[in-house]
């Protein structure tokens, strides 16, 4: 600058001459004003002022004589003296501008301004020389000099080219200089350049363009000058203004190369000033033209896109319509349409437009942010455009982040706008759908960006707008957010997965979190990149906070119980996953929500009807193996308890306020009551918390105390939750659910409702419970429920017991775990069993019954059968035996009746109307058989089993005969002391109508009932409307017990009957033997008198008859005779019966078994039950050996009789009997060889040898082996000499 100034043609200045003069004669002084003198004596500002003070004289004194001499000088000399005087004065004032006195400074500036109007050239030259000759002056002093220079230039009408260039360079040098004054110093120098533009703006513009396009990036002062030039209306004429704007466009076009590169922070400032320039422009067409040119540049770099959007936003502050039109036109342009349909760029030119959609999204966000005062009517249009570009642009991280950033700016503008609540925004649901899609696309195994939390913050803002979000969209949002956050891996896994990337992604965190933690960073932008595990933890924590804030925003906008249930219902799904960290996150959010409600009082719990479900879930989570989950669950339960207590206290206060009391009283324990109307109530204080023991407990004791505060409906809800927990796959949840169920039933089981539905649900869940302790507690809960709800549970389990499985049977056993309940269960089942509706007949309109009501009776029958084997019901079954016996006997007849169609039906209709299969009849029969065998009445069972008579109960026609046999062989015995409570009118009416009344015709009836009572029962039967009952009753009155004289008459008929045995007709003989058997039964205790031996001998003589029917009848008669006899003289006939067990006729073999057993009972033998089982079901040598052992052991004194009877059968014509007797003798020979051979003659011995020889070829291996060994043994024994 100095060099250029020295080259000026008029380098000699008045100031220079003054300096020379002063140096030549230091005594020369100039007259100055008093004020000037006074000011020169003032103390100057700090060190810089001192330096100026010592550098130059403070005054210039010109002696009076010299002044007078000046008047005598020539005119030129006088002019020079005046000019020198003015220059010296100006120089002195410039020097005094460093003063700290504001009043003096104001005076100096005013004087210089006045001087500038008169001699601007002199002032400018003085300022230039002062700055050049005093480079060490302070920045503040120079700042004031620049302000003065600007004022002088503005006051000048004409600015010479020399001064224009000089001061332009001076301004350019100092406007980028860094001083302690920072921007104000640079702005002062910049204002000098602006002032020069009044005289020559084109030259200044050329300098600006040169500086703008040179270097890395233009300094802010250049942009400042350009902004002032564009915004000022005084500097340019209308024509110059247009030229200036055209030059700006050319400068923007030339700046494209450096705008396409990654920008430093200073470079982005250009877009701000550009936007401000366009904001100040009044002509909308000009704004459009500039914005269109800007958007036609490259969109490849992020800073470029952000800068463009910022420029558009700033311009929209005053030109919203124009900016909207530019964006709309740009969105319809060919490059944008290409970028929407092309996902892979083919060349570098395509890269310039690939992310143009992101620029548009950011632009809409900036437009909303900068034009927020007028943005509300535009919101729906902006959202619709953003939604469009979101859906139809190529998806990548750039688009995602641009969309989130723009939406955040839009929501911020809307939230800050006044009158937002008076608007209805109809595009919010579409925007919410975009957020949902964005969350779904987030990678589930990484967490590197703030996208999740940004999306949830946006959703929170959307919840505050009108109209409210519909439930479907809200549900989808909640489900997506929960899945996106809760399902993230553990933080350690997230960190490891991030390290596996070839290029690890940058982890973005909030700047606040960065500053709070003191983390290091790279760069100073809003997306600082952090590289440590703590950063990931912070990002995760912020994400969780965003989710919690969204939940709180939803409940704040709709503080109702339905909304809370809606939120919790979506949260419940994540409270039950298998992964512990997912449960931990979900229960933490649940706890935060409850804490928020507790501390802020947004919700009145009286409207929340599903609190039981929440208590149940929190209670189960209190048993979670994860400690953090336990703590959160317990804390959540405590907040819930506070809410409940506050509600209870509020109701109490309200009741007391309505009562005629002067003062409201406190609770009995002295604790203050919560006022439900005070929604801003604070949480319980330390004193109240100390009194409330729930905060000092853990596990289910907490839930137990909370249960005391629940209503009946809420308790039902809690129990349903526990039942659902039984079906969980988590062992701890199943265990916790069973404990909670048991606790609830123990405390409140008596007042529960809908027990039937609960029992059905427990049955469904029980099959999935594999933990013994949990299953035991669940069944115990059923036992406790049965104490108060027996009938409901029986009816429920009865409906689900066809077919019966092991889990349902466990429930039945649980019902009878306590003796009083087991009796009631059997009584209820008997009542259900006696409900025997017959299916309605088919008609034209209804070919088959609509409801099979008889299934209930069949189910009861099936359960009675199964419960006979359960130890819990053993005593109850024993005590209820008479009723069960008659009920099951009648049930068999009922099942047979179900199989009889009422009217002829077509074949197809008959099949459709089909009723229970023979399996049902078999079940009823098995129930009766098991009843006899399990209650100690196995003798009765044995009588029918050995006869094979159970099959008589399978058809309706043979059923009476079966009942008769049961009454004859088992009913009498069973009746002694057992059937007495049940033999009444029902015994007549409930039994089948065909045949004699078996039980009432029993000879031992009077042992059961008194004679008069029996006569009364039968007399009532004579008046019964049913003719069958009347006939049965009449037959019962003919019992010999009521007519003792009939005994002698019947005994007198026996002799003629015995003569009938020798008829030639087999049928006649069989019939006569049957008649004798019936007579023996009717005689009962009177017996046959002295004719027993005759009857026995007559019957015994037919044991070996060749006719099968006669052999069977004779053995049956012999068995009846044995049952009626009291002596044991006929026991010697046991061997024939034993040998006929292998009779070739099945009927004979059956009768032989039965008679053999009856004889064994009469003797009596030991091990009768084993004997019965052997006779009934066992085969082979082991069974035969056991029978032989019983015979020989129990009747050793009759050994010779038995052996002689056996030897006689060696000559039998039946090969089966011959084989059996051979084996019998073989066993006898093994144990009594000498006795056998003493009784054998030569013929018997030879026959015995031949028989054993024949048995060596028997098809059964065991018999062949036995025959071989016996043959060898007999040969050895027979070879010994007889003693």
TrEMBL record:
GO terms under cellular component: cytoplasm
Domain Maestro-like HEAT-repeats, first and last residues per copy: 581-826
Keywords: Repeat
Listed transmembrane segments: none
Domain Maestro/Maestro-like HEAT-repeats residues, every copy: 1015-1275
Annotated region (Disordered), positions in chain: 1-36, 655-682
Entry coiled-coil feature ranges: none
Domain of life: Eukaryota
InterPro entries per UniProt: ARM-like, ARM-type_fold, HEAT_Maestro, HEAT_MROH2B-like, Maestro-like_HEAT, Maestro_heat-like_prot, MROH2B-like_N_HEAT
Residue ranges of domain MROH2B-like HEAT-repeats in the record: 243-556
Name this protein carries in UniProt: Maestro heat like repeat family member 5/pseudo
Annotated organism of origin: Pan troglodytes
